[in-house]
Structure formats: structure tokens, C-alpha cells
Write a structure and sequence with these properties.
By secondary structure, this protein is of the alpha+beta class. The chain has 11 helices and 12 strands. The chain is 40% helix and 22% strand. α3 (154-171) runs antiparallel to α4 (173-198).
């Protein structure tokens, strides 16, 4: 299921353009404070689609500085990996003490749970992919944010796939939804490659934890999956399994529940006609009542449109030099 919105500063009077733009990017992506840095009247537009829970935004705008602060992070409940692909102009991205200079064809990662800054010295265009962190269990973003992945190599291959998928959803949304899991898998692999190049060799515990998370993600649909099966599948004892997961603070039962609920949500978004009993079976719940009881919301609410974008904001009556989300 897809939800598409197109917003442009041409929809409002020129004096209100930047305040409107600030509201739009806050509603569509995450809470930020933005200010214009150019001398010309500000212009911008964004085409946003939610595809199987992942946000895809194509945007073009004038020069500006965008900042996400700790205060804004606290007020946001959702956690995202933001994939910024530069298609025109230049950008400088800062997070976690690193700075990435982006040129057309390059990309970088941002973690919505930590402060960051983006600076655009002139007109620019980007594709921004907004991936819920729940789709990347066990994948740490430490050491991979604000790294420029150039227009050659694995980064370019993944960027081309993501942009192609964004175009595909306009022509054939059903086919695009079928390809979304492959996009998540490619991003997970690219994050792993970026982490390997940017950080010292991970500890044995970290490697074991990643192995456990990957195994559980692959087999979470099996209702018989338990600690013994996971330990055997990962080549370790149950005691070692519990010690590895204790470092994350998320026990095996909670990990399984989170992955199964996320899978159930994706199935209901893609196939709202499926009976709940079928969803429960497909996702590894032992019974329908477990699927319902372990969900934060009722099945009926899950069948409605959901996604990272939030539409419906109205332009502010007055523009301001700095326009944070409220």
C-alpha cells in the first residue's frame, strides 16, 4: 500500500514560503529547525511516498541549513535510518563528529536518534529514504553516519536500486512492494560494509550478537523457535546466547516479539484482506490471540494506512528566519 503527497512552496504566498517549507519537511521526515541561507526568494518542493512502511522522498529546494537537536529527538517517538542520496547541487552533512561532503551521485546515512546538521550552499536535489530502525534489528549505526559514499562502488549500486524503486512505485506499486525487502537487505549489507571500513574490528561479543540477530530475523516466522534452537543455529551454548543478548538489554522473547509484530504490520499493510489467523501463522505467533495481545494497537487499526510521513500541516501566517517544529 502506498500513500503519496506532493507539496510545493508555490502553494503559498512568497512571504510564507520558508515557514511553510519548514513545516512540510518536519511533517514529512523528522522534526528539524531550518533557516534559509540564500538571497533569492525561497522555493522548494517534495514528492513523498510511503511504500510498505518506508518513506521515499524526492525533493528540490534552495539554499538552507537544517539542524536536528536533542530536544527535537526527545519529542519524536519514531526512530529512522535516513539515507540521503544527492542528485544535484552540493551538501555538507555533520553527525557524530564527522562531516561528509556530498556531490551528485554520492550518498550518506543519518541516524534520527542523534543530532545532526545539513548545509546546502545553493539549490540542490536529493532522494531521502526513511527506513524504520525496526527493519534493521541488531544493526548499529555507530561509525557509519555522515560518511560520504562516493558515486562509484557498492554505494552507487545501492543508490541506483533505491532510486529505481522510487520510480517503479509510480508505475507499478505492487511490484515495488515486492522489492522493498531486497532494498532493506541491500541497505543492511551496505551498512555492514561501511562499518567495516570506518571502525576498528568489532569484539567477539558484538559479532556473536549480530549473528544471533540475523538468525532470529531469518527464522522468527517459526513458532517453535526458542533459546535452544537459536543457540544451536548460531553454534553457541544457551548460556552464551543469554550473555550476548544481555549486552543489548533485549532478551530473546522481546526480540522475537518485536520482529513478529513488525512482520505482522507489514503483512497487514500489504494485504489488509488477510485473516488475522493467517497473519499470526505467517509471523510465527503460536495462536491468533497472541498476535493480537502482543500488538500495541488493535488489528483493525493496523489495517489502516501507516507510515513515517505525516500529512496535513497548514502554512504559518508569518515566515521566520528560523522555523523549528512545534
Amino acid at each position: 500500500m502506498q500513500q503519496r503527497t506532493i507539496r510545493s512552496t508555490e502553494d503559498v504566498a512568497a512571504p510564507d514560503a520558508f515557514a511553510y517549507w519548514s513545516d512540510v519537511i518536519c511533517d514529512t521526515l523528522v522534526r528539524v529547525a531550518a533557516r534559509p541561507t540564500g538571497r533569492e526568494p525561497f522555493q522548494g518542493w517534495i514528492d513523498h511516498t510511503v511504500l510498505d512502511g518506508i518513506g521515499w522522498s524526492t525533493l528540490s529546494a534552495g539554499p538552507q541549513q537544517v539542524t536536528r537537536t536533542g530536544r527535537m529527538i526527545v519529542r519524536d517517538q519514531d526512530e529512522f535510518l535516513l539515507v540521503n542520496i544527492q542528485t544535484a547541487g552540493q551538501a555538507t552533512v555533520r553527525q557524530d563528529g564527522r562531516a561528509a561532503a556530498l556531490a551528485p551521485g554520492s550518498m550518506t546515512f543519518l541516524d534520527s536518534t542523534r543530532p545532526y546538521t545539513l548545509e546546502f550552499g545553493g539549490p540542490f536535489s536529493q532522494v531521502v529514504v526513511q527506513v524504520p530502525r525496526s527493519l534493521l534489528p541488531g544493526r548499529s549505526l555507530g561509525g557509519v553516519t555522515a560518511l560520504a559514499l562516493g558515486p562509484h562502488g557498492p554505494g552507487r549500486l545501492v543508490a541506483d536500486f533505491l532510486m529505481g524503486l522510487e520510480r517503479q512505485q509510480r508505475e507499478d506499486p505492487v511490484a515495488a512492494v515486492a522489492l522493498v525487502p531486497h532494498a532493506v537487505g541491500l541497505l543492511d549489507s551496505l551498512l555492514g560494509l561501511a562499518a567495516r571500513e570506518s571502525r576498528p574490528r568489532p569484539s567477539a561479543t558484538a559479532l556473536a550478537r549480530e549473528r544471533v540477530h540475523r538468525f532470529v530475523q531469518r527464522h522468527a516466522h517459526d513458532p517453535g523457535l526458542d533459546a535452544a534452537a537459536v543457540a544451536a543455529g548460531c553454534g553457541m551454548s544457551r548460556r552464551s546466547l543469554f550473555r550476548v543478548l544481555a549486552a543489548d538489554g533485549e532478551p530473546l522473547s522481546a526480540l522475537l516479539r518485536r520482529l513478529r509484530v513488525a512482520r505482522a504490520q507489514r503483512l497487514l499493510r500489504a494485504r489488509p484482506d488477510l485473516p488475522l489467523a493467517v497473519v499470526a501463522l505467517e509471523c510465527g505467533f503460536a495462536a491468533r490471540r497472541n498476535c493480537t495481545a502482543r500488538s500495541a494497537r488493535s488489528p483493525a487499526r493496523r489495517r489502516g494506512p501507516t507510515g513515517p510521513g505525516r500529512a496535513g500541516s497548514r502554512p504559518r501566517s508569518e515566515a521566520s528566519a528560523a522555523a523549528p517544529c512545534r
